Amino acid sequence: MVFSSILFLYQFLPGVLLLYYLLPRRSRNGFLLLASLFFYSWGEPRYILIMVISTVLDYSCGRGIHFAREKGKEGAAKGWLLLSLFGNLGMLGFFKYSGFLAQNLSALTGWENTLPAVALPIGISFYTFQTLSYTIDVYRKETQMQPSNISFGAYVTLFPQLIAGPIVRYTTVAWEMDHRRENWEDFSVGIARFFLGLGKKVLLANNIGLLWKAVSAQNPEILPGVTAWLGILAFGFQIYFDFSGYSDMAIGMGQMLGFHFLENFNYPYMALSITEFWRRWHISLGTWFREYVYIPLGGNRGSRFRQMRNILLVWALTGIWHGASWNFLLWGLYFGLILMGEKLFLLRWLETWPKFGRRVYTLTLVAFSWVIFAFEEVAQGAAYVQAMLGKGGFADGTSLYLLQSYGLLLVLLAVGSTDLPAKLFQRMPQNSRTREALASGLLLLVLGLSTAYLVDQSYNPFLYFRF
């Protein structure tokens, strides 16, 4: 079940919200746990046990760390932490990377790989990092142990962000798990945020995704440069509006239920450097790696060599987190090397450039990164880069047709990926009734158009399900 489906929009979500608010407060976490398990089992009934095991493991490890500390047994507390780390990363490694490792070992040694293919449980990368943040923070004394297994289970399985994030650290919702107070203001803001995300996903990402689908189906060896650039621009907009739209929906649903998740995107295509881009893109993932990998490795402390090593290692892990494929590792290393260069000298150089030049620099590098990300076959990605550089000529009839068909949408997406629409809305007359009426009308229009699109179409992918 996906958020952008008629089943979810008109049956599951309204039913959950109705029952949630009819129940007394003391029963709401238990209901959220059951509703979230039902939501997950709808798409992954085989692997719900994996999520339950992860939940039980980290709940037990959190308690173990807490009570070991109370008895002054620091070694035992560290043992519980290691159990959580090895248990969670072991499951993630088995389901996500065992096939990749076996395949490459077979290619290197000639060993006949007879291991059965292992399907990837939906959302395992997200909820594994989420549960790990709890045990690590309990060990660091940055949060208290959650005494209720029901409340902890609700935290791990909470359906708004279960399958696609944002990655919610326990510390950000610890108080709200047992003490939140829902109100109409939060609920109405949550609805608006949800509808906004739905429109970004269904009306924008899905439609521009058709352009990428058409271009990526062509042979990159003979692709004209204009067509190649149109395709990768389409992919860049698709993945942004797709994932940020889902994040908006998750944040909005969380607010309807009384939770306040942190932002996951902050207009990344407005960044003036790659360093800034990654402060704005998938913020929850970047925060996780900074807090639990980069800083423990030493961060910016120590020699310049150690700092560069830490950056490269974190970005190699960031890349491979996205998928068990060489292109994702290369994608992570690509950004790692650029960020190393910016830290060493590029940022100082870029500061002398006008903003327009800095944006061109950033968006060009990001565009080439999407080629690495999009093609699992590295050779195919390399051929596509050559097409972008003009190997297949400048343009042909198809290029002009695609530009004519999608040019206006690309312009709208470019504007929509900036903060300009929000600024224009803020400059409207301050009469609250006028603004509320306009906002309500626009959101209802988005809902109506999105519903019509979902009823009438079959192209409704979600790019981050595979992670």
What gyration radius follows from the Cα positions, in whole Å? 23 Å
- Determine the fraction of residues in helical runs and give it as a percent range: over 70%
Give the number of helices: 18
Are there runs of 5+ residues with pLDDT below 50, and where? Answer: none
Q: How many domains make up the 3D coordinates? A: 2
Mean pLDDT score: 92
Q: How are helices and strands ordered from N to C?
A: HHHHHHHHHHHHHHHHHH
Structural class: mainly alpha
How many distinct beta strands?
0
Q: For the report, how would you describe the main beta sheet?
A: none
- Principal-axis shape equals globular
Beta-strand content: under 5%
Oligomer: single chain
Terminal CA distance: 16 Å
Walkthrough of the structure:
The chain has 467 residues and is mainly α. It folds into two domains: 6-180, no CATH class; 186-465, no CATH class. It contains 18 helices and no strands. It has helices spanning 6-22, 25-43, 48-70, 74-109, 124-139, 149-157, 170-179, 184-216, 225-256, 274-280, 283-297, 304-321, 326-350, 355-374, 378-388, 397-416, 420-426, 432-456. Helix 3 packs across helix 6, helix 9 (225-256) packs across helix 14 (355-374) and helix 14 (355-374) runs antiparallel to helix 15. The longest helix has 36 residues, at 74-109. The chain is globular and about 70 Å long. The model has no long low-confidence stretch (mean pLDDT 92).
Keywords for this structure?
467 residues; mainly alpha; 2 domains; globular; AlgI; transmembrane helix; Ac/AlaTfrase_AlgI/DltB
Helix-strand blueprint:
Layout: H1 6-22, H2 25-43, H3 48-70, H4 74-109, H5 124-139, H6 149-157, H7 170-179, H8 184-216, H9 225-256, H10 274-280, H11 283-297, H12 304-321, H13 326-350, H14 355-374, H15 378-388, H16 397-416, H17 420-426, H18 432-456
Helix pairs in contact: 1-2, 2-6, 3-4, 3-5, 3-6, 4-5, 6-7, 8-9, 8-18, 9-14, 9-15, 9-16, 11-12, 12-13, 13-14, 14-15
